[in-house]
Specification:
It contains eight helices and six strands. By secondary structure, it is α/β, with parallel strands linked by helices. The chain has a single domain, classed as Nucleotidyltransferase, domain 5, CATH 3.30.420. Strands 1-4-3-2-5-6 form a six-stranded mixed sheet. One of its GO terms (molecular function) is metal ion binding.
């Protein structure tokens, strides 16, 4: 992934910073707004919340990197994304007027879906409303269809910002392809470059 200087790029803080919660009932309405926003604001900061790590791969691995990818793959395949946040800005770090961040809340059921208890405890302590995720959460396939036509993916001039983003993009690729992640890490990165041609990982750029 290319390195980048983030100079004046700044994410909004919490409070009255323009965060829009997106649930199943307002999903189409908010994507219609995002399709307008992305025409001017081409930088997208992304973060996800997911239910932790529940499995470890076994067997022989070519390298530490191969093990780390197989760890990511088996957990992304087993688990469901809970929340996705997208913050929009231009090349100078200026955010749109009004809402700057859209927080997508996915369908998740604590009685049916797998999770790591410590991760769920942390999310609950942060105020996540799991009952609402169960009742009004976004269906992954519907989200993927709207994301595909949003102007955010498969386009070179959209620049994605993330931090230590393997799992984040793993869950997004699973959503977009409606498939488990590929066994081969090289195929994963080919798919990543297809859907997200320009990615800047803050962790990579600062190491």
């Amino acid at each position: 992934m290319p390195a980048a200087s983030f100079g004046s790029l700044s994410l909004p803080g919490t409070g009255d910073c323009g965060i829009k919660d997106v649930w199943n009932h307002n999903l189409h309405e908010e994507f219609a707004i995002i399709r307008q926003v992305v025409q001017k604001y081409h930088w997208v900061a992304m973060d996800t919340e997911f239910p932790g790590v529940v499995a470890r791969p076994i067997g022989e691995f070519r390298s530490t990197a191969d093990y780390q990818y197989q760890l990511l793959r088996c957990n992304v395949d087993l688990l469901r994304i809970i929340q996705l946040g997208l913050t929009f800005m231009d090349e100078n770090g200026k955010t749109p007027p009004g809402y700057t961040t859209w927080q997508f809340n996915f369908k998740f059921n604590l009685q049916e879906d797998m999770y790591a208890q410590d991760s769920i405890d942390l999310l609950q302590n942060s105020g996540l409303q799991f009952r609402k995720h169960e009742e009004d959460g976004i269906e992954p396939l519907e989200f993927a269809e709207l994301l595909m036509s949003s102007g955010l993916v498969l386009i070179d001039n959209i620049k994605w910002l993330s931090f230590h983003s393997g799992y984040d993009f793993g869950y997004l690729l699973k959503l977009l392809t409606d498939q488990n992640l590929p066994q081969d890490e090289n195929v994963f990165f080919e798919n990543l470059r297809l859907y997200f041609p320009t990615v800047y990982d803050v962790k990579v750029s600062h190491t």
